[in-house]
Design goal:
The structure holds 2 protein chains of 2 kinds. Chain A is of the alpha/beta class. Among the domains of chain A are: 38-62 and 83-257, P-loop containing nucleotide triphosphate hydrolases (Rossmann fold, 3-Layer(aba) Sandwich), CATH 3.40.50.300; 271-365 and 425-503, P-loop containing nucleotide triphosphate hydrolases (Rossmann fold). Chain A is built from 22 helices and 20 strands. In chain A, the strands form 4 sheets. Chain A has a 6-stranded mixed sheet, with helices on both faces. In chain A, helix 4 (109-120) packs parallel to helix 6 and helix 17 runs parallel beside helix 18 (445-462). The two termini of chain B are 19 Å apart. By secondary structure, chain B is mainly α. Classes of the chains: A alpha/beta, B mainly alpha. Chains A and B meet through helix 14 of A and helix 8 and helix 9 of B. Chain B: It is a multi-pass membrane protein. Chain B: Keywords: Cell membrane, Membrane, Transmembrane, Transmembrane helix, Transport. Chain B: This is Peptide/nickel transport system permease protein.
Chain lengths: 541, 271
């Protein structure tokens, strides 16, 4: 029994009463005061639903079909709206994944902060404002006295996430639910946010439920971890034990995801695509500056950097969606036109792109068949039976059953399936070179692993060359032959995978590598110390 | 057929009314007991077996004129809405896709069109080119093209920003494919909803122009002018003049039932 929160045999259902979809089944959770519980699982595992249920809240269309949610003597499963309203914000607070979408863009941060305390009567406006400044300082936000008077769009994502945590602390709740709060952030920003969150919950002895799919992150934050799958608990154990000796196969498979390694390529590297002093501008802003490097045929070159480093701009320039303002791009030794409209059909066919958000990269009004049929017809000119056979062949290449999936509409697919269709669409053109723009960053680890394995296999079978753009260094380590590190539109460092990961030459590369969450419990403290040292060294220099 | 079986009762009602109106309009000369402009008796005769809805201010059979009115009013309103939508939506999507100066030029031209009150613009244009039915259809289509252009441009803008448009462009797809296969299916539900509403506006606009004497010319029957012609009867407590008005209302409601159902289907919601 947890002395703050006890959930017993909780069952959540959606849909009709006679044939319900089960969201959660037989869930038990215990939480003591001041304890942090990690909830881990893939998307659809029910971890967010479980987190919300701990507040006595269910999403629209979902109902509590059984069980108890006992929060400090109140059964939230049966509590009235009035009771829940008194508890929410006052004793139980929530920090959402996307702070940008959770703040009201029309109000200043500090006014949104003060809303809770004023509503619950825990402070008057002046006291709430003072408290906001104090909490902003504790969250180590820059200019804590002034930042509250900005609007949400005027501060960065990492700062906004910290401001939201401060807001959740406004009434000094007993319990905070963190729902994937750092998933959308860069690795270097993530460290600061995680550190600040951990400090503030420790300082006020706040209990927390930390929901994430990133095991390394949860191992830094949680005292205990519960692994979930298909709406059920797989296993629960103290963090250290869970990391060292997980009992269930499923947990072990989650842990093993980080261990894919593409075998190292040997032999000479001949360039397929060469960038020669490429620069690009958004009006007067220089997004790319003097980019020189060659992509080797049949290899994977990973381009790594934080948001704003110019890596996606680089992809646009190569794809022809944006013309370079200086320098040139050589394809197979010949210059490539900056605008895709001026490229030959063969060039368009040979250079393909896979996008980050499969949701928006595929037309939601089309079926899988329509999505693949068009590029096959467009680039290969196949007709009738041969074309249908080619579409089926593509489905088999991406390991989706043609009979099941060809006539589904895009919105009926899962995230991983959509991304596979995106790969098939690129393959339909029989390309030689594929630009992969953050293609796994929106996916769960297990699904992402499947996609990476597929790409490695396809590369071997079809002799493809990849440019892999990502901010996730674990992915880079898994798939890259060559690594290019970018910062503020320039190349910081480039070289073979082994060299970059084992003997990075530049301070920035070292800092980036150190920011990758590790599974051991002391990583966050180390990384924060290193980051602080690196910053002071940079200031001194 | 499976489509109809899943339709809610309101949509079936709407479809029945629309089908009946269209059929009656199409076969008006066969259905109507008397001719459209034929004077069959005294003015303002009450309802009787011979003249089920009585006669109008010139002694013409009300029912026959209602039937011919369906052909004129509904047919012209549908035609006008159809033109305004196909042209307006195509131009709006084109402007959104091309952007830059093409978009600027087209949008500003439409702004000019919208700056003048529609009724005054219609009066002016019809005064210049002369009142006739083809001219009236053309003028109303141009006037209603402006809001359709703006709507489809705004809706298409959101779609054009998505990656699948970029993917299709990178493939080298032509403008027609992009408009028809990539953008249109994603904004069609918005357009259909708007079309239902616009149809009613066009309907009333034609009636208004007829009232002012430059729309459908007498003696041609049209529901809008029939209300006006027989308005005196209302003072005597007779509901006859309200029948054409009721027909307009019934058709408007029916079309919106159908539109609601189509929207529901398009958005993938199951009720």
């Amino acid at each position: 029994m947890g002395n703050l929160l006890t959930i017993r045999d909780l069952r959540l259902e959606a849909g009709s009463k006679t044939d319900p979809t089960v969201i959660l089944e037989g869930l038990d959770l215990d939480l003591d005061r001041g304890e942090v519980l990690g909830l881990v699982g893939e998307s659809g595992a029910g971890k967010s639903s479980a987190g919300l249920a701990a507040m006595g809240f269910v999403r629209d269309g979902v109902r509590i079909a059984g069980g108890r949610i006992d929060f400090d003597g109140t059964d939230l499963a049966r509590a009235s709206h009035a009771t829940l309203r008194r508890l929410h914000g006052r004793r139980i607070a929530y920090v959402a994944q996307s702070a940008a979408a959770s703040f009201n863009p029309a109000h200043r941060l500090i006014d949104q902060f003060a809303e809770g305390p004023l509503l619950h009567g825990t402070a008057d406006a002046a006291a709430a404002h003072d408290d906001a400044r104090a909490l902003y300082r504790q969250m180590r936000l820059p200019n804590p006295d002034e930042i509250g008077f900005r609007y949400p769009h005027e501060v960065s994502g990492g700062q906004l996430q910290r401001a939201m945590t401060a807001m959740a602390m406004a009434c000094r709740p007993d319990l905070i639910i963190f729902d994937e709060p750092t998933t959308a952030l860069d690795v270097t920003t993530q460290i600061e946010v995680l550190g600040a969150m951990r400090d503030i919950t420790e300082r006020y002895g706040t209990a927390a439920i930390y929901i994430t799919h990133d095991l390394a992150v949860v191992s830094q934050m949680a005292d205990r971890i519960t692994v979930m799958r298909h709406g059920r608990e797989v296993e629960t154990a103290a963090t250290q034990r869970m990391l060292e000796s997980p009992e269930q196969d499923y947990t072990r498979s989650l842990w093993a995801v980080r261990s894919i390694r593409k075998p190292a390529e040997t032999g000479p590297a001949e360039p397929l695509l060469t960038l020669d002093g490429v620069g690009a501008h958004y009006r007067s802003f220089k997004a790319l500056d003097g980019i020189d490097f060659a992509l080797a045929r049949g290899r994977t070159t990973a381009v790594v950097g934080e948001s704003g480093s110019g890596k996606s701009t680089l992809a646009k320039v190569i794809a022809g969606l944006m013309a370079p303002s200086e320098g040139r791009v050589l394809w197979d030794g010949a210059p490539l036109a900056g605008d895709h409209a001026k490229r030959s059909r063969a060039q368009l066919r040979e250079i393909q792109m896979i996008y980050q958000m499969a949701d928006t990269a595929l037309n939601p009004r089309h079926t899988v068949r329509e999505t693949l049929d068009r590029p096959v017809a467009f680039f290969t000119g196949l007709r009738g039976k041969a074309r249908r056979a080619r579409v089926r062949e593509l489905m088999e290449l991406i390991e989706l059953d043609p009979d099941t999936f060809l006539d589904r509409r895009i919105p009926e697919l899962s995230g991983g399936q959509k991304q596979r269709v995106g790969i098939a669409r690129a393959l339909a053109a029989k390309p030689r070179f594929i630009i992969c723009d953050e293609i796994t960053s929106a996916l769960d680890q297990l699904v992402a692993e499947g996609i990476l394995k597929l790409l490695i296999r396809l590369q071997k079978e079809l002799g493809l060359t990849y440019m892999f753009i990502t901010h996730d260094l674990a992915t880079v380590e898994a798939i890259a032959d060559e690594v290019v590190v970018m910062k503020e539109g320039r190349i910081v460092e480039a070289g073979p995978r082994g060299q970059i990961f084992e003997a990075p030459q530049q301070a920035y590369t070292r800092r980036l590598l150190a920011s990758v969450p590790q599974m051991d419990a002391g990583w966050l403290d180390r990384a924060r110390r290193d980051a602080a040292e690196a910053r002071s060294a940079e200031t001194a220099a | 057929m499976t489509l109809l079986r899943t339709a809610p009762p309101t949509a079936i009602f709407g479809l029945l009314v629309l089908a009946a109106t269209l059929l009656i309009g199409l076969f008006a000369p066969l259905v109507a007991p008397y001719g459209e402009t034929e004077i069959v008796g005294a003015e303002y005769l009450p309802w009787s077996a011979e003249h089920p809805l009585g006669t109008d201010n010139l002694g013409r059979d009300m029912l026959s004129r209602m039937i011919f009115g369906a052909r004129n009013t509904v047919g012209l309103a549908l035609l006008t809405t159809g033109i305004a939508f196909s042209v307006g939506a195509a131009l709006g999507m084109f402007a959104a896709l091309k952007g830059g100066w093409v978009d600027q030029l087209m949008s500003r031209a439409v702004d000019v069109l919208m700056a003048v009150p529609p009724l005054i613009l219609a009066l002016m244009l019809l005064a210049i080119i002369g009142p006739s039915i083809p001219n009236m259809v053309g003028v109303i289509a141009v006037i209603y093209l402006a809001p359709v252009f703006r709507l489809s441009r705004a809706a298409a803008m959101n779609v054009v920003a998505l990656d699948f448009i970029g993917a299709a462009r990178l493939r080298g797809e032509g403008t027609v494919w992009l408009l028809r296969r990539e953008i249109l299916p994603n904004i069609s539900s918005t357009l259909v909803a708007e079309a239902g509403l616009r149809f009613c506006f066009v309907f009333l606009f034609i009636a208004a122009l007829s009232f002012l004497g430059i729309g459908i010319q007498p003696p041609t029957a049209d529901w809008g002018s029939m209300v006006k012609e027989n308005a005196t009867l209302i003072t005597f407590g007779d509901v006859t003049p309200l029948i054409p008005a009721g027909a307009i209302a019934l058709l408007t409601v029916s079309i919106n039932f159908i539109v609601d159902w189509m929207l529901h289907r398009a958005s993938g919601l199951k009720s």
